Automatic annotation (TrEMBL):
The keyword Transferase applies. GO terms for molecular function: protein-L-isoaspartate (D-aspartate) O-methyltransferase activity. PROSITE patterns: PCMT. It is an enzyme of class 2 (transferase). It comes from Pseudidiomarina maritima. It holds the Pfam family PCMT. This is Protein-L-isoaspartate O-methyltransferase. Keywords: Cytoplasm, Methyltransferase, S-adenosyl-L-methionine, Transferase. Its EC number is 2.1.1.77. It is found in: Cytoplasm. It catalyses: [protein]-L-isoaspartate + S-adenosyl-L-methionine = [protein]-L-isoaspartate alpha-methyl ester + S-adenosyl-L-homocysteine. The active site is at 62.
Length: 211
């Protein structure tokens, strides 16, 4: 396992800065978070490359640039109570937990959730609540959220999630099947304003939950 990751993480943060990430807090957290802990040990040597990597169960740990970009979008709106759909490895969760007051994270695959929980505990990140369940349904009992981040591509806009936003809240979500686009949705009362940010590639947001 990688012991001294700081130098590699610093280079990764520099790459992200060159790619247009401007939020200093986001860059600082990327630089201080040991990404190699969130993937199989056999892939740890690739942890600080700007690439998505498999984590098992047909899932991936997102490309650092995408993690930073989506996080930066939430930070632009000063989100502090965030719902994450798709805990996955827990890396995006860890980044958010160091920037907001509380993260509520939903994962449909129980084994991935268990592994993520152990990683976050190891990093002393305790402002995270986790739920094993269907991401399409969100976490209504903990709503409303001023930020929602979805780390898998929905085939259509999930109306249940939109209803869990606060007035003025923002959701960052990839939507589409063959072609996926990253969309930022902001709520104004009963109206929702959408902004499309370009093509992306994520695993699909699958309904239901599994052991």
């Amino acid at each position: 396992m990688i012991q001294n990751f700081q130098g590699m993480a610093r280079k990764l943060a520099d790459k992200l800065r060159a790619e247009g990430i401007t939020n200093a807090a986001v860059l600082d957290v990327i630089q201080s978070t040991p990404r190699h802990l969130f993937m199989p040990e056999s892939l740890a040597h690739k942890a600080y490359e700007n690439t998505a990597l498999p984590i098992g169960q047909g899932q991936t740990i997102s490309q650092p640039l995408m993690v930073a970009s989506m996080t930066q979008l939430l930070m632009q709106h000063h989100c502090q109570k965030v719902l994450e759909i798709g805990t996955g490895s827990g890396y995006q969760t860890a980044i958010l937990a160091q920037l907001v007051n509380h993260v509520y994270s939903v994962e449909r695959i129980a084994e991935l959730q268990y592994q993520a929980k152990r990683r976050l505990k190891k990093l002393d990140l305790h402002n995270v609540s986790m739920r094993h369940g269907d991401g399409w349904q969100g976490w209504a009992s903990k709503a409303p959220f001023d930020g929602i981040i979805v780390t898998a591509a929905a085939s259509s806009m999930p109306m249940e999630l939109l209803q869990q936003l606060t007035d003025g809240g923002v959701m960052v979500i990839p939507v589409g099947t063959t072609i996926q686009r990253l969309i930022v949705v902001r709520r104004f009362g009963d109206e929702f304003e959408q902004k499309e940010l370009g093509e992306v590639k994520f695993v699909p947001l699958v309904p239901g939950a599994t052991i």
